[in-house]
Amino acid sequence: MSKLLLCIVVVTDTHIVDKVVECEHNETKSTEKIALENKFKEFLKDCFKKADVSAYTKVDLANDERKLMLTLYCDQKFLDCGAQEFKNNQAFRDLQVQINKLENKTEQGIYHKCLMYIFKK
Ligand SMILES: *[C@@H]1O[C@H](CO)[C@@H](O)[C@H](O)[C@H]1NC(C)=O
Ligand SMILES: *[C@@H]1O[C@H](CO)[C@@H](O)[C@H](O)[C@H]1NC(C)=O
């Protein structure tokens, strides 16, 4: 999966991360979904504090969106922390169910294709 392809420390550079950010921007989201995703990030507040993507020296990390992408996809400490939070927090799990209900298969397909296109080359 493209997730792993993004997470290659010696390869991943600013350009690649910016492309992924662009795919994310190109996804059409309802305001409802955006609101739920913001809540989702709120649950992960403490996990974000543990995140460290400084190993990605080819990426200009001055930009918060780039940092966010690398964190969400690649940072193992963050991902472990998130999994733990998910396990321990019923409200967080309920939120995930709500978000899943709003997933649009067409949009998901477009996003997936957009990512695949980046890593094809
Ligand atoms: C995002 O959408 C714009 C406008 O439709 C398009 O030009 C651009 O290539 C898209 N970006 C990606 C990464 O697909
Ligand atoms: C899903 O996304 C597509 C493409 O953006 C859009 O045309 C369609 O109306 C959306 N469907 C729902 C149920 O929101």
Written description of the protein model:
α2 runs antiparallel to α8 (105-120). 74% of the residues lie in helices and 0% in strands. The chain has helices at 2-6, 14-26, 31-43, 45-50, 64-74, 76-88, 90-102, 105-120. The chain has eight helices and no strands. 18% of the residues are buried. The longest helix has 16 residues, at 105-120. It binds 2-acetamido-2-deoxy-beta-D-glucopyranose (NAG) (2 copies). One 2-acetamido-2-deoxy-beta-D-glucopyranose binds at residues 28, 104, 106-107.
Radius of gyration: 15 Å
Overall pLDDT: 92
Please count the helical segments.
Answer: 8
**Stretches with pLDDT under 50, minimum 5 residues:** none
Question: Could you give the count of β-strands?
Answer: 0
β-strand amount: under 5%
Estimate percent helicity.
Answer: over 70%
SSE succession: HHHHHHHH
Query: Which ligands are bound?
Result: 2-acetamido-2-deoxy-beta-D-glucopyranose
Query: What gap, in angstroms, lies between the N and C termini?
Result: 14 Å
- The geometry reads as globular
What number of domains? 1
Main pleated-sheet profile: none
Supply the helix-strand structural class. Answer: mainly alpha
List the helices and strands and how they pair.
Elements: H1 2-6, H2 14-26, H3 31-43, H4 45-50, H5 64-74, H6 76-88, H7 90-102, H8 105-120
